[in-house]
Amino acid sequence: MSATYVDPRGPIRTNAMLPGPVFDVELATSSRRARYYALRFLYGAILLFLVIENDPANYPSYYGANGSQFTIQQTANLGRWLFTSFAFTQSAVVLFLTPPLFAGVIAEEKQRRTLQYLLASRLSSAEIVLGKLCARALHIGVFLTLGVPVLSMFSLFGGVPPELVYLTFASSVTTVFFLASLSLLVSTYARRPREAISLVYVFELAWLFLPWMLTTIMPAASGIWLLLYEQIRPVVQWVFASSPIALMRILVLGVTPSVLPTFTWMVGLQVSFGVLFLVTAILRLRPVYRKQGESSRWVTVFKSLQRGKRLLPRPACGDDPMVWKERYVSRTSAFTKVVGCLVGVLVGGVIAYSSFDLAVAAFREVSVYGYGSTTQNTARHAFSMFLRFLSAVAYAAWVLAVASAASTSITHEREADTWMSLMATPLEGSQVLLAKMFGAVWSTRWMALLLFVLWTLGLAAGSLHPVGFIAAIVEVSVFIWFAAALGTAVSLRIKHSSQAMTVTVGIMLLLNGGYTLCCIPLEPDTALITVGVTPVLVGSTLISYENLAELLGNTGLYWSRHYTEMCAACVFGTFGYAVLAFGIMIRAMVAFDKAVDRPRRLGYIAGERSLDEVFREIASRAASDES
Questions:
Q1: 374 is a domain residue
Q2: How many structural domains comprise the chain?
Q3: Alpha helices of 370-465 — where are they, by DSSP H?
Q4: Cα within 13 Å of Cα(291), Cβ side
Q5: Using CA atoms in the order 422, 425, 429, 434, what is the torsion angle rounded to 10 degrees?
Q6: CA angle 324, 328, 333 (to 5 degrees)
Q7: Burial class (CB in 10 A: 0-12, 13-18, 19+), 302
Q8: Alpha-carbon dihedral angle through residues 552, 553, 558, 561, given to the nearest 10 degrees
Q9: Rounded to an integer, what is the distance from CA 298 to the centroid of its chain?
Q10: Does 374 lie in the same domain as 286?
Q11: Domain of residue 112, residue span
Q12: 160 and 32 within one domain
């Protein structure tokens, strides 16, 4: 009688079955997360808000008086505007949610030290990558299907050809596939989820807007720039054809016979690029992971040439080691730094090129009429409006970057297995938290430099009043302080970087305009509704000489009341965010030891108490516990 051995792990599979067990585990674990339910509810609320906002009663001059009967053309116009709003909202949701859903799936496995177990199993690289792709794609599919009932209602109004509806949904699907494949490829090379998500957002913005800017700016130039554009024009045109910007432009201008060729090129290029990214991620998953623990040959040669010397030598540690660590010990990989430098140089060049003509005209005008003159301020007004818009956009990017960096400041220590050794030091909670807040701001200091240069240029050109200059500095400092305090407090409570980043960014979006979804249907005729929308407050604070004269004139007109309410919103918003930032920071410092599960300090290490007093307190605590 022969014995038969049965492998407890089950039979060995000879053929890979896709998507595989990774798909089952990923779908089961991700479906239980509360943030997905919250995002679905929020997306449904946004769709409902679009329907309410496009109510014909809000536009009587366009649709006729309330209660009147619509013509066929007016009903078709209503359906077209509803569909256009829905298409833009769906595209924005796809572009915003796809990177964080996919970019951290592999990098998070690396950070948790669980990827080596997946690679050591009998799973193939295709099963790992495709399993995570399909599981997360189902969540995006839920968002897309949420709009089907709303879209079926729009079809009753007419004005929207059926083929345009199909093209819009198909373009959303291919855009998700393209961004998901790009996110998985970046996540394969990245070491941490935050790094992967940031890189994907950078690549996405470059994909959407860089070809459009190059085709707009470079052909208008001359000389070497025109010759350079002729060399890169085929590549720019191919990348621009894959962007959904072209299809969105057709939706705004109306249906044209060229929509089908545009859509075909966009879908074909997105699918082709997506397949290329996906295959590269599958093929490079194991080689990249093996090499990430080793130093590159070029890095080794560079270090040997340096012989231990740095281009900018590090100073002594001093009395605050945490601040020194946050300043001089980088958590960003070399690839991310190179990409960031290239993007910074490119964005800086575009900003300089765009603002050159406006700044020169403003300087010429102020040299003729002088500062404070409002008799002739056409060029200065144009430059002021440009600075307001650009400052609001740059500040929004900066505050989100600070909040994201702060939200992963403590979770990174936990995931890198350095948190226990940090807690074993005599550092107090206030030292750790203040250093983490400082590090989040320090890592994004180039955005502060950009805003300061723009505001100084506007002040010198007479497009910005000194009062607005000083008020904007104070205001932005408070808002950045709040973002750093909020991200650090969330990172102290939540253990995983991806969850901490999601919660922090969600709170920031809710406070910076998300609440207006409940207020706008009530049609409040006041600027005080923007008291929490910090980008609007920053743009409104950059007042010019003309704005200050209108504000102090007190003419009783609508715009005078608008300026007064906007000024009150800036004051109340700055004060409110300062109070919240101070409260969050103090609360985190007080509850630090309890939040990190560290025993409360007895004061001996800091030199505040003698050893006998410490022993007496320990004995009294033991006696109280026994009683």
A1: yes
A2: 2
A3: 378-407, 409-415, 419-423, 429-442, 445-460
A4: 11
A5: -70
A6: 140
A7: exposed
A8: 30
A9: 33
A10: no
A11: 21-205+244-294
A12: yes
For residues 378 and 287, membership in a common domain is answered with no
| Same domain, residue pair 425 and 569 | yes
Are the CB atoms for 326 and 438 separated by under 8 Å?
A: yes
Whether the pLDDT of residue 156 is over 50: the answer is yes
Judgement on whether residues 85 and 201 belong to the same structural domain of the protein: yes
- Whether 310 is in a domain gets the answer no
525 lies in the same domain as 384: yes
d(CA 518, CA 505): 19
Residues in the chain, overall count = 627
Residue type, 38: A
Q: Is the pTM of this model over 0.70?
A: yes
Q: Are residues 428 and 593 in contact, defined by beta-carbon separation less than 8 angstroms?
A: no
Do 30 and 170 lie in a common domain? yes
3-state secondary structure of 198: helix
Q: pLDDT tens digits for 482-538?
A: 999 999 999 888 887 777 888 888 888 888 877 776 666 566 667 778 888 899 899
Nearest by Cα to 167 from 96, 262, 72, 237? 262
Cα dist. 169→172, 239, 439 in Å?
5, 21, 42
Domain contains 609 = no
pLDDT in tens, 311-348: 566 777 767 778 788 877 766 666 667 777 777 777 77
470 is a domain residue: yes
* Distances 205 to 174, 179, 243, 347, 464 between C-alpha atoms, Å: 17, 11, 10, 11, 29
- For the record, the structure tokens of 49 come out as 């808000």
* pLDDT tens-digit map of 429-440: 788 888 899 988
193: Cβ contacts below 8 Å, ≥ 6 apart: 103, 104, 107, 108, 111, 187, 408, 497, 498, 501
Q: 617: burial class by Cβ within 10 Å (0-12, 13-18, 19+)?
A: middle
Residues 382 and 249 in one domain: no
Q: Pull the structure tokens for residue 397.
A: 């990017």
